[in-house]
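FORM 12-B: Structure-to-Sequence Request
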């Protein structure tokens, strides 16, 4: 497989014919090589359904990458950007599969599991940035634990972290959409106020995790 710069990846994927086909096959190889490591915390590569998940995620990732080529800003390696897309797609699919058969306790018991190292985080981040990110995560988790009720934490986890559809989340929490909207609104308001008290601004949290 040929080694490409960011510019070469973009050029080849925008080309026609054999050049584009070769680039897509090379990118497929990159994705399928990285996914087993990225997903090993959640799903063993030895399970029979793993290969079908990887194939499904790979195909969806290739389509998503082609559709979003113009959004790549070149602030990281192109393949790192692609891996992040692949992992997000894979985790969304895993969560969707779990919703059908899992209880609320099973869904929320692992809420503090960190993302796979090296793929969701920028591999080029320096020690100082990594330390800042770790400290910020710890502070935000502490605030969530101290400020929100158990019910609010569950709602925030299901809707804000696991991206569960509103109807499914309402069913898991044994409530209705309107009550769930109110629960989530109150949780966000309490978090916003507490972050402000501790002089933490939401955009600062996001900006920290975009540093290279």
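FORM 12-B RESPONSE
SEQUENCE OUT:
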């Amino acid at each position: 497989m040929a080694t490409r710069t960011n510019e070469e990846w973009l050029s080849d994927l925008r080309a026609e014919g054999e050049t584009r086909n070769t680039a897509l096959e090379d990118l497929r190889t990159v994705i399928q090589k990285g996914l087993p490591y990225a997903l090993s915390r959640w799903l063993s590569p030895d399970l029979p359904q793993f290969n079908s998940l990887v194939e499904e995620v790979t195909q969806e990732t290739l389509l998503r990458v082609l559709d979003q080529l113009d959004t790549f800003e070149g602030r990281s390696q192109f393949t790192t950007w692609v891996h992040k897309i692949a992992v997000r797609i894979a985790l969304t699919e895993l969560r969707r599969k779990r919703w059908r058969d899992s209880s609320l306790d099973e869904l929320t018991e692992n809420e503090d599991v960190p993302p796979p190292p090296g793929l969701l985080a920028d591999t080029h981040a320096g020690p100082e940035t990594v330390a800042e990110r770790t400290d910020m995560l710890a502070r935000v988790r502490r605030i969530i634990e101290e400020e929100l009720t158990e019910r609010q934490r569950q709602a925030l986890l299901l809707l804000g972290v696991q991206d569960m559809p509103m109807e499914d989340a309402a069913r898991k929490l044994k409530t209705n959409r309107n009550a769930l909207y109110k629960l989530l609104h109150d949780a966000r308001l309490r978090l916003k106020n507490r972050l402000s008290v501790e002089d933490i601004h939401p955009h600062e949290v996001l900006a920290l995790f975009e540093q290279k």
